[in-house]
């Protein structure tokens, strides 16, 4: 009797001990639905990517403000762009003046939430702003906003599989895309933008640069983050992906590349709907001598352009906004530049006020460094002659061709690689 009572007490004690022990092992039991576990969609996405990239991510979520540039602007810039009363010209020259005095030419633009210029400021400075097209007015409002938050990152893009800093990326394809252009991206991945090492050991990597869809559009972000995870090649920032934000895209891309791919030999900046003959591009790059290789800026050069003053044109620039010719520039459909220029460009971009046309803006930055674009006959950012559109031999010799649909891209790629083709 006594024995069995002692036994029951022991069983109860052991059971209690085991329950207690189990609870210490699982401190979260019963608290699964803690409020901090109900994260919103966006931070969930960042966390998911975080899990893969861990400590590196922390550094890149907020873009550090660029340092006060230590640079001398080439005389070419002041010679080409006149000093006058147009708003942009005034901004440039007041920035250059600050730079000469050792200050920060563009001002404090590290804060994304407080960078908009109030309508009152704009109206005071641009007397006829109300006559500007609405989108152009909204460009002016956010012209000083330069550091959008990063939503999807690929911090290991240019690292080796062991996670080491990689000095071997020969060519980085940096492709301007839009959240909705999945088909274009997929055609690029399957053809000219395919990552890997070519027969002579040169490594090619690809990133797609995207902003966010407009709030009126269906929300593509869940799909985009799956795509980013699956392919590991999408970098996304939180700004509306639109024509007038392409200069912003170029800026954040330069910052990103400097942070994550600083040792890349060459960068190709282009659209997701062009056709690139990657083997021809690589053999051109291999043929360059060292002095040229370090200051390359090459593409289809438009050398004597001036602003379009027709308000109905996509490229319309009001006279009271910018007054002067354009510098010679490489068409934004696709151009190449040296990785060695990334750091200098990153400094130059902080001196040049944002311009609504991104390839003109890029040329202004290169010009601040004293680098002029070099024309190359194999970059056709316009198009080949109509009668040559189906001619594979013509395409085999070209490096870049303007605007091809995803299926045309696949067909062309297959065609120029066909062993049956003799040119
Ligand atoms: C600016 O750059 C020059 C040359 O790169 C360097 O010698 C100088 O120390 C730099 N000045 C500052 C303040 O960083
Ligand atoms: C820039 O603005 C941010 C946010 O307002 C502020 O924290 C920072 O100190 C400013 N930097 C400079 C150099 O004024
Ligand atoms: C550029 O992006 C910002 C941030 O999303 C947005 O407020 C602005 O309207 C966009 N600009 C244009 C012209 O679409």
From TrEMBL:
<keyword id="KW-1133">Transmembrane helix</keyword>
<keyword id="KW-0472">Membrane</keyword>
<comment type="similarity">
    <text>Belongs to the glycosyltransferase 31 family.</text>
</comment>
<dbReference type="Pfam" id="PF01762">
    <property type="entry name" value="Galactosyl_T"/>
</dbReference>
<keyword id="KW-0333">Golgi apparatus</keyword>
<keyword id="KW-0328">Glycosyltransferase</keyword>
<feature type="transmembrane region" description="Helical">
    <location>
        <begin position="7"/>
        <end position="25"/>
    </location>
</feature>
<dbReference type="InterPro" id="IPR002659">
    <property type="entry name" value="Glyco_trans_31"/>
</dbReference>
<dbReference type="GO" id="GO:0030311">
    <property type="term" value="P:poly-N-acetyllactosamine biosynthetic process"/>
</dbReference>
<protein>
    <recommendedName>
        <fullName>Hexosyltransferase</fullName>
        <ecNumber>2.4.1.-</ecNumber>
    </recommendedName>
</protein>
<keyword id="KW-0464">Manganese</keyword>
<dbReference type="GO" id="GO:0000139">
    <property type="term" value="C:Golgi membrane"/>
</dbReference>
<dbReference type="GO" id="GO:0006493">
    <property type="term" value="P:protein O-linked glycosylation"/>
</dbReference>
<keyword id="KW-0735">Signal-anchor</keyword>
<keyword id="KW-0812">Transmembrane</keyword>
<dbReference type="GO" id="GO:0008532">
    <property type="term" value="F:N-acetyllactosaminide beta-1,3-N-acetylglucosaminyltransferase activity"/>
</dbReference>
<keyword id="KW-0808">Transferase</keyword>
<keyword id="KW-0325">Glycoprotein</keyword>
<comment type="subunit">
    <text>Interacts with B3GNT8; this interaction greatly increases B3GNT2 catalytic activity, independently of B3GNT8 enzymatic activity.</text>
</comment>
<dbReference type="GO" id="GO:0016262">
    <property type="term" value="F:protein N-acetylglucosaminyltransferase activity"/>
</dbReference>
<comment type="pathway">
    <text>Protein modification; protein glycosylation.</text>
</comment>
């Amino acid at each position: 009797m006594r024995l069995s009572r002692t036994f029951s007490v022991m069983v109860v004690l052991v059971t209690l001990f085991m329950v207690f022990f189990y609870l210490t092992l699982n401190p979260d039991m019963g608290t699964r639905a803690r409020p901090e576990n109900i994260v919103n969609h966006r931070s969930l996405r960042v966390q998911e990517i975080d899990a893969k990239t861990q400590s590196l991510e922390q550094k890149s979520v907020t873009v550090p403000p660029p340092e006060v540039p230590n640079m001398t602007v080439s005389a070419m810039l002041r010679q080409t762009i006149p000093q006058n009363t147009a708003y942009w010209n005034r901004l440039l020259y007041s920035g250059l003046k600050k730079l000469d005095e050792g200050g920060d030419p563009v001002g404090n633009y590290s804060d994304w939430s407080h960078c908009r210029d109030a309508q009152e400021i704009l109206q005071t400075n641009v007397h006829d702003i109300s006559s500007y097209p609405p989108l152009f007015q909204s460009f002016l409002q956010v012209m000083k906003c330069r550091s959008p938050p990063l939503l999807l990152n690929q911090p290991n893009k240019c690292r080796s599989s062991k996670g080491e800093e990689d000095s071997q990326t020969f060519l980085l394809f940096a492709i301007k895309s839009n959240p909705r252009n999945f088909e274009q991206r997929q055609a690029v991945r399957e053809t000219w933008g395919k990552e890997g090492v070519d027969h002579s050991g040169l490594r090619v990597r690809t990133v797609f640069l995207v902003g966010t869809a407009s709030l009126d559009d269906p929300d593509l972000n869940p799909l985009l983050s799956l795509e980013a995870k699956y392919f590991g090649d999408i970098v996304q920032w939180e700004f509306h992906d639109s024509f007038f934000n392409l200069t912003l895209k170029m800026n954040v891309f330069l910052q990103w590349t400097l942070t994550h791919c600083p040792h890349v030999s060459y960068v190709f900046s282009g659209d997701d709907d062009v056709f690139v003959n990657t083997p021809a591009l690589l053999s051109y790059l291999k043929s360059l001598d060292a002095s040229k290789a370090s200051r390359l800026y090459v593409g289809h050069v438009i050398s004597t352009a001036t602003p379009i003053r027709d308000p109905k044109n996509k490229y319309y620039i009001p006279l009271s906004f910018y007054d002067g010719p354009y510098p010679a520039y490489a068409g934004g459909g696709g151009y190449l530049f040296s990785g060695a220029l990334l750091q200098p460009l990153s400094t130059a971009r902080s001196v040049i006020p944002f311009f609504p046309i991104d390839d003109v803006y890029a040329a202004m930055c290169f010009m601040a460094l004293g680098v002029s674009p070099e024309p190359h006959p194999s970059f056709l950012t316009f198009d080949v002659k109509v009668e040559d559109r189906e001619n594979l031999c013509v395409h085999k010799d070209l490096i870049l061709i303007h605007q091809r649909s995803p299926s045309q891209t696949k067909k062309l790629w297959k065609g120029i690689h066909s062993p049956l083709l003799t040119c």
